[in-house]
């Protein structure tokens, strides 16, 4: 077995050996300000000022604990995906009949629908990124947005808008290509696509969803990969694009389960990305064997071995042992470490304290420093 404690090397560009997915627990001040904005006692300008102050605080905290990459914690968002997708041309949000089903719980009701041709002309999150960039200093600012596949996975395509799904996927890819360029022009050099859609391939429940979509598994895998690859094609050489593949994260629970095997060859050998953030924090994620499909020596595999769903710290030696196991399938210098997901994919957040959140991230940094010298 590879002795990773002695041969791993640090990296100077993202993804970093100790990294993070992105979202952070919303502070009580943010939650209260959002309530006040909703009931009309706080203006949009006042809310944004509070957001700016709280984001500045948590960015400084990320620097203080030793992270090389900082995010805005998605503090301006209610949802990790809907907020961005509703900003695309041709997409509208609406109050759905029911929320998204998770294990033993359901989110609040919300949905998106495609009412016109998809495009990207401008987006409020460009200004959100510019603010993060302005306070990042010599740290790397990471922007997180939902994968283009999420518009298909969560969006209701209204009748008559598109003649074919191929045309729809093409327009989504082109809109994302414009979005990627816009974030780059705003200064972004580290962009992450978050994606729960791949989880439909991991279990029998997911396979039933594919049938409900009226798609075939092989065709949908190819469509997902093609949309992503078209979106990231011709990106600037100094822009790092990663993807976080998730099984759902809401109030410390989950929506999907199953290992990566059924889509492993497509994910690990068919996507033109610089890194993959992968959930491996519990038995729902399966083993490391699918990593055998990693053939690109430049693809970084970020192992989500530290859970963001509860505050108790995993034994460090156990995490290092699991890194050793993964290193049997992919070179140790292509491996990084992070929490398995963000701490607050929605504004409600997971069931742990802010201090426990920081301790989790310190734990990731400490282990990474021991493994990659």
Give a structural overview.
The structure is a single chain. The protein is α/β, with parallel strands linked by helices and 373 residues long. The chain has a single domain (4-371), classed as TIM Barrel, CATH 3.20.20. It has 12 helices and 13 strands. Strands 7-9-10-11-12-13 form a 6-stranded parallel beta sheet. Strand 10 (240-245), helix 10 (264-270) and strand 11 (275-279) form a beta-alpha-beta unit.
How do the SSEs run, as a string of H and E? HHHEHEEEEHEEHEHEHHEHEEHEH
Describe the main β-sheet briefly. 6 strands, parallel
* Cα-based radius of gyration, to the nearest Å: 20 Å
Number of domains: 1
Structural class: alpha/beta
CATH topology: TIM Barrel
CATH architecture level-2 label: Alpha-Beta Barrel
Low-confidence stretches: 1-6
Q: What is the count of DSSP helices, taking H or I runs of 4+ residues? A: 12
Provide the helix percentage.
25-40%
Count of strand segments: 13
Mean pLDDT: 93
Terminal residue distance: 18 Å
Q: How are strands sequenced across the largest beta sheet?
A: 7-9-10-11-12-13
CATH class: Alpha Beta
The dominant shape is: globular
Strand content: 15-25%
GO molecular function: 5-methyltetrahydropteroyltriglutamate-homocysteine S-methyltransferase activity; zinc ion binding
EC number: 2.1.1.14
Domain Cobalamin-independent methionine synthase MetE C-terminal/archaeal: 20-347
Protein name: 5-methyltetrahydropteroyltriglutamate--homocysteine methyltransferase
């Amino acid at each position: 077995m590879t002795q990773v404690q002695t041969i791993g090397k640090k990296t100077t560009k993202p993804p970093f050996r100790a990294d993070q997915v992105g979202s952070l627990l919303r502070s009580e001040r943010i939650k209260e300000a959002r309530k006040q904005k909703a009931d009309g006692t706080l203006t949009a300008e006042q809310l944004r000022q509070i957001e700016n102050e709280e984001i500045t605080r948590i960015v400084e905290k990320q620097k203080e604990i030793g992270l090389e990459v900082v995010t805005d914690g998605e503090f301006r968002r209610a949802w990790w995906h809907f907020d961005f997708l509703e900003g695309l041309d041709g997409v509208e949000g609406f109050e759905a009949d029911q929320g998204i089903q998770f294990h033993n719980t359901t989110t609040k009701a919300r949905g998106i629908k495609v009412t016109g041709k998809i495009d990207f002309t401008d987006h409020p999150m460009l200004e959100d990124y510019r603010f993060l960039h302005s306070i990042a200093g010599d740290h790397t600012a990471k922007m997180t947005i939902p994968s283009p596949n999420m518009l298909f996975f969560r969006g209701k395509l209204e009748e008559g808008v598109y003649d074919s799904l191929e045309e729809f996927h093409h327009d989504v890819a082109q809109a994302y290509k414009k979005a990627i360029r816009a974030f780059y022009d705003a200064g972004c050099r580290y962009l992450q696509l978050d994606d729960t859609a791949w989880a439909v391939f991991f279990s029998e429940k997911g396979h039933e969803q594919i049938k409900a979509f009226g798609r075939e598994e092989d065709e949908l895998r190819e469509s997902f990969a093609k949309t992503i690859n078209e979106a990231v094609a011709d990106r600037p050489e100094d822009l790092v694009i990663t993807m976080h593949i998730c099984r759902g994260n809401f109030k410390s629970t989950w929506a999907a389960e199953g290992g990566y095997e059924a889509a492993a060859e497509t994910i690990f050998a068919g996507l033109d990305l610089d890194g993959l953030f992968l959930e491996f924090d519990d038995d729902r994620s399966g083993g490391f064997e699918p990593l055998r499909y990693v053939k690109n020596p430049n693809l970084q595999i970020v192992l989500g071995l530290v859970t963001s769903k509860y505050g108790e710290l995993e034994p460090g030696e156990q995490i290092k042992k699991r890194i050793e196991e993964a290193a049997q399938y992919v070179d140790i210098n292509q491996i990084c470490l992070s929490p398995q997901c963000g701490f607050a994919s929605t504004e409600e957040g997971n069931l742990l304290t802010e201090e426990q959140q920081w301790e989790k991230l310190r734990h990731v940094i400490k282990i990474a420093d021991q493994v990659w010298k």
